[in-house]
Write a structure and sequence with these properties.
Layout: H1 3-6, H2 9-26, H3 48-73, H4 78-104, H5 116-133, H6 136-156, H7 173-182, H8 199-218, H9 222-243, H10 256-279, H11 287-294, H12 296-310, E1 315-317, E2 320-322, H13 324-337, H14 343-367
Antiparallel strand pairs: 1-2
Length: about 375
């Protein structure tokens, strides 16, 4: 068995890079001072921030052929695999609801139902069952059917008195479905960027990841693996860009063009990580990301929960109630670096320090051999 068939360090590193991106994007010092690439596109378009989540979904899929083959080889029965898949999916959805409850507290009646972890849980559930029962060709066909079907729903189905194909931030089929299912329990009154309809092409993103993961596990030799990843990534990214002429790149809707484009870029980044880390053994730079990648979802959950707590007005300063984050940013970070940097730079420093703190936590867990299964 070759190392690629057993485990790839680049998988953990890429997964850690995605989590690092999520922490960086979600924790600026001030939301009023953020560099444009670190902010999600208002509607159509794609920034660096818009690449992070689909990269994690892609690498989630890419890791599955490795993990599932190990479990099946070690004697896990299919029924036991089913139970494990359902438990993990349910735990992810549950943890996502916990985060939403913490963010809404004490107004829990305004609880948002969709969320990042909820989408990951649903995508994992669907992708895992498809992987267990479908070969590479059928998975590719299912992925194509999902993005094509999602496009058909958005483009051809009229809804709520609106014409088919209406795709504005305020009026679109995905938002209509979210409001119908979740009522007011969405991120905003128009719908939710992690809503139900967008889960379909997100599953296609994960299925693309399973194809990349299986290729890396089964192909012979580094050169062949790299050629496959790069070729597939280039084709996917180019197809997504071409499709975006008529169906814009849109993270909130997770349009088919966005799914193809981001999966293609993720495959190219995966190829770069594999070449540097597993082929060239240039891996010192990747160690912090490997630490993050070993416990990615646990660290994401803790970082988001901590961020919610820091945004709470716990402190009394000069007779005024203040959030801990506000105090840290304006009383500690800004006096240290504000004289040399503009406010956007200071905000980025805060985000980088937050990321560094979570890398340190990940490093401690890694050194102690702690793996938190979420």
């Amino acid at each position: 068995m070759t190392p690629a068939r057993h485990r790839l360090a680049s998988l953990d590193a890429f997964r850690g890079l995605a989590i690092a991106g999520m922490i960086l994007v979600n924790n600026p010092g001030s939301w009023n001072a953020v560099f444009p690439p670190l902010v999600h596109a208002d509607w159509n378009g794609c920034t660096f921030a818009d690449l992070v989540f689909p990269s994690f979904i892609f690498i989630l899929g890419a890791a599955m052929p490795f993990a599932f083959s190990r479990r099946l080889a070690s004697g896990h029965e299919t029924a036991a695999m089913y139970r494990r898949i359902v438990r993990r999916s349910a735990s992810l959805v549950g943890l996502g609801l916990v985060l939403n409850a913490a963010a809404a507290y004490p107004a829990v009646n305004a609880l948002r139902i969709p969320g990042v972890l909820q989408r990951i849980g649903l995508v994992y559930l669907a992708t895992a069952f498809i992987l267990l029962h479908a070969g590479a060709g059928r998975r590719a066909a299912i992925a194509i059917a999902l993005v094509a079907g999602h496009w058909a729903l958005l483009a051809l189905v009229p809804f709520g008195g609106h014409a088919a194909g209406t795709l504005t931030p305020e009026v679109n089929l995905a938002g209509f479905v979210d409001r119908l299912l979740f009522g007011p329990h969405t991120l905003n009154r128009f719908g939710d960027p992690e809503g139900l309809l967008g889960t379909l092409p997100a599953v296609a993103t994960a299925l693309a990841g399973t194809l990349a993961g299986q290729w890396m596990r089964d192909a012979d030799g580094p050169r062949r693996r790299l050629v496959g990843l790069v070729a597939g990534g280039a084709i996917g990214a180019a197809a997504g860009l071409a499709w975006s002429v008529v169906l814009p790149l849109n993270k909130a809707l997770w349009t088919g063009s966005y799914a193809l484009f981001t999966a293609g870029l993720a495959s190219l980044v995966f190829a770069a990580c594999y070449w540097l880390i597993d082929v060239q053994a240039v891996d010192a730079w990747a160690r912090p990301f490997v630490w993050l990648g070993v416990n990615p979802l646990a660290l994401y959950f803790l970082s988001e929960l901590t961020s919610d707590l820091l945004d709470r007005p716990w402190l009394r300063v000069a007779g005024e109630t203040m959030a801990v984050k506000t105090w840290l940013f304006w009383e500690l970070i800004d006096p240290l670096v504000g004289g040399r940097l503009q406010e956007m730079g200071v905000s980025l420093v805060f985000a980088l320090l937050t990321l560094a703190a979570w890398i340190a936590v990940a490093g401690v867990l890694h050194r102690r051999g702690v793996r938190i299964h979420v």
